Amino acid sequence: MARAAAASPNRSGAPSDYPSGGVWNNISSRSQYGARCGGLRKGKRRVTTSSDTDAASPGTLFGPDSISRKVHADPAMWPAGVRALYLEALHPRAVRGVLDNSSFRRDPIGRLTRTAKFVAVATFAPAQVAEQAARRVRRIHRALSAADPQTGEIFPLDDPALLLWIHCASTSSYIEVVRRSGLRLSPAQSDRYVDEQRATAALVGLEPDTVPGSMAELDDYFAEQRPLLRAGDDAQEIYRFLTDPPMPPGLRRLTAPLGPMGTPLYGVASRQVWSRMSRVAYSALPDWAVELYGHRAYSAASTTRSLRSLRTAGRMVPRSLIGRVVGL
Questions:
Q1: How many angstroms separate the CA atoms of 212 and 148, rounded?
Q2: Which of 14, 78, 95, 164 could bridge across to 24 with cysteines, CB 3.0–4.6 Å?
């Protein structure tokens, strides 16, 4: 999963830094490789895509020199994605929406893999394909609702406040965990990443001007949201599932090289590897989030060492295997 210096097409037609050839094969069958979308429009603001600025890019939202490609192609995105789920669950309405409208209880890893698919498409696929995927997501969200766990009020899942919370929890988790795991980014590059992700926010229906565009703005946003956050019963259920979930066969293939499938060693190894990664991801949360959950976290030094080890191990996993694991 090491990133390439430039996004030249490979034999499948995908940019060379695209993380899984299998995904690209599915994408290319539904759109032309060089499709130009000319940018996305949200409200009065036009969100610039790389088709406007980079002739070498196949009309993607993010060009080959974008920070988003560097971050999203990094193997540390796996613990980053788990950290995002922990953080998202601290918003009472957000977590209630997940528990009421998804198969999380039966397939807690499914949410992570579906998010991984969407991030991959939004980052590496032609903008036309990214918009098609986003339309499906927006259509699903429009049809769903949930009840506020405190007031009983029914709220829609496409509430902009909820979409903004999910976006910010994901964006901050991706950039902070990947940096902490060893990807060297300057403060200016980190700010650029957050600003680039406004294009992803536009895909899911947010107005870019309402979305934080720098690390400092992200910090301000979380400071504003903290009085609304709590680790109630719903969040604790997410915590329990993430630390000890049912192990889907695909993930067991990735995390259990110590014994043949079906043997006790196979199952024990896969669960131990996942549990370790999940607890490291939890420990990478901000101190205030760990305090809300109330569970013990690893020390800062141990968390950083573990993240770097996980990133190193992730670099050894073939891209094709990762694609099969998440069903891309």
A1: 26
A2: 14
| pLDDT tens per residue, range 52-85 | 334 334 588 898 899 999 999 999 998 999 999 9
| Full-model pTM | 0.76
DSSP for 100-149?
Answer: HHS-TTT-HHHHHHHHHHHHHHHHHSBHHHHHHHHHHHHHHHHT-EEE-T
Render 260-295 in DSSP notation, one character per residue: -TTSHHHHHHHHHHHHHHHHHHHHTS-HHHHHHHT-
CA distance 111 to 241: 12
Residue 276 is encoded by which pair of tokens?
A: 């370790």
What is the spatial distance between Cα 302 and Cα 280, in angstroms, rounded to a whole number? 9
Provide the β-strand partners of residue 46. 41
Q: What does the alpha-carbon distance between residue 127 and residue 116 come to, in Å, rounded to a whole number?
A: 17
Q: Using a CB cutoff of 8 Å and minimum separation of 24, what contacts does 147-154 make?
A: 147/96, 147/100, 148/92, 148/93, 148/96, 149/92, 149/93, 149/96, 149/232, 149/233, 149/234, 150/92
| CA gap 126, 121 in Å, rounded | 8
